[in-house]
């Protein structure tokens, strides 16, 4: 009976120590990445902005090339158009809300949904029908 109680406490303490270790590991990892970036952003904001923008652009270019190689140019273009629609609608919505024209935001959202549907269903279906007609000839 004492052995079972000790095994129960051992498993509980083991779980607690694992959680504490993971918490310490996450804290140290976060500090290793965040503190240098915070220092860099505080002391050299222009250089920091350029550096982060360059890294973001490089990652986006890499992911775009990877997507094009994996699926081809047409699906990648459709994805880009969809992302551009979302980003444009969000940016315009934020601008309209901050400028006090909240009612126009509904029109922007409806237009974005219409454009999204156009890209997703009409243009893609038109593309696949064109490919079928070319393959039949």
Notes on the protein architecture:
- The chain is mainly alpha-helical.
- The longest helix has 42 residues.
Q: Summed up, what is this model?
A:
With 137 residues, the protein is mostly helical. The protein is built from 4 helices and no strands.
Give the topology, please.
Elements: H1 2-43, H2 45-71, H3 73-98, H4 102-136
Average pLDDT? 86
State the helicity in percent bands.
over 70%
What fraction of residues sit in β-strands?
under 5%
By DSSP (H or I, 4+ residues per run), the number of helices equals 4
Features:
single chain; 137 residues; mainly alpha; 4 helices
